[in-house]
Records
---
Amino acid sequence: MAFSQGSRSALSIGVEDTFGTAASVYTNLPIKTHSLDLSKERLQGMDIQADRMPRVSRHGNRSAAGSIEVDLRKGNYDDLLEAAMLSSFDSNDEMTIGTAPKFFTIEDRLEDITQYRLFTGMTVSTATFSIAPNQMVNTTFEMVGKDMSISGTPKTMGASTINTPFDSYNGAIYDGGVGSANLLGIVTSLEFSITNSFAPTFVVGDDTTPQLEFGRSIIEGTMSCYFEDLTLVNKFLNETESELQVSVDDPSGSNAYTFYLPRIKYNGASVPLANEQSRIVELPFEALYDDTEETQLLLTRSS
């Protein structure tokens, strides 16, 4: 008996023309891990019997969800980034927060046992980016979707180029504007997320959702820095708004993606004494709409 191995697994992804209808074109999606799965609600009969034992149990509404964890890199995840921002890159390779959802069919390929799980109506509910020394730029896409089916026949996966992942050594972080005076050389880690709150909208007569609803764009994060002076702490104490720019790249130095948050507010400045080593200040922040840029977040990719 052969057991399915993780090393013989893969994901392919295609953009849907119609929500919940399987895509026609698929490409390989490089991943580290994923937890995509189908869940069903349970319906239980509540009849009271003298022997105390239940008689009825049924399956209810179906929905798909799970996370996809990747090392961020140029090109390979642009569709997912567009879904996370409900927008699209323009002719200048720039993208702002938008209002247009994008849906995918994702195939979980178990090649060694020739079984293929097909998830439809999937989109990015939350995207989280983590930057720290001695690691790649870790990115997690929390997915929500409509349904899943299983087949012994795979979708045809087109050829794709897997690019070099971004790391924490090729890029920069600026607070308060771009320039040498604003370059932060004291950051020990930075994590931020885009949350859209996608959720199914179930109706009578169907066990899967006809569409997904979504909420406001919530962009929040935490920056950890060595505590060397009060510059960042005072921005929290005085409720001074700032701006944050984060660039990441691969070793070539020519494939940068830049996340620009034109208007942020620091909502804390904790400086715990954890041990005898360097003191670290934790700075949670949120991104707000900026009148000049007309967005919370501007994402620019290299041409």
---
Amino acid sequence: MLGRFASGVTILTTRDDEDRDHGMTVSAFCSVSLTPPLVLACIDKGNEMYEKLRNASSFGISMLAEGQEALSRRFAELPSNRFDGIGYSRAESGVILLDDALAHLDCRQISRYEAGDHSIHVGEVEWAATQQDRPLLYYRGGYAQLQH
């Protein structure tokens, strides 16, 4: 039933204590508050990112544009070397933000909650940037695009 709810697609990134980069595709992402600017992302406890994000002080969000389906698949399926050969920059916090994304957020993690088989990570947006493009959407188990 919830597959009928269209969502945007993001790549969430963080760094571990040894300055190694980690990232994953996340569609369970949303805005929480405008003042202060807060967002949340939900992470499956069985995912390798669960422990990485659990101890992280910050995370980055790259909201994917409609032409970035391959990046979404790469970060959902590729087990390692996800960042090899792709364009990115680093936010002030050090997290990776992917080139050509629809929007970028650099977030300081302020809260974490356990919720069933997932954890909810709340971040305060410390820096954001956007560009004009159409979003990559996920709907009913596949990728979708906005119609003109």
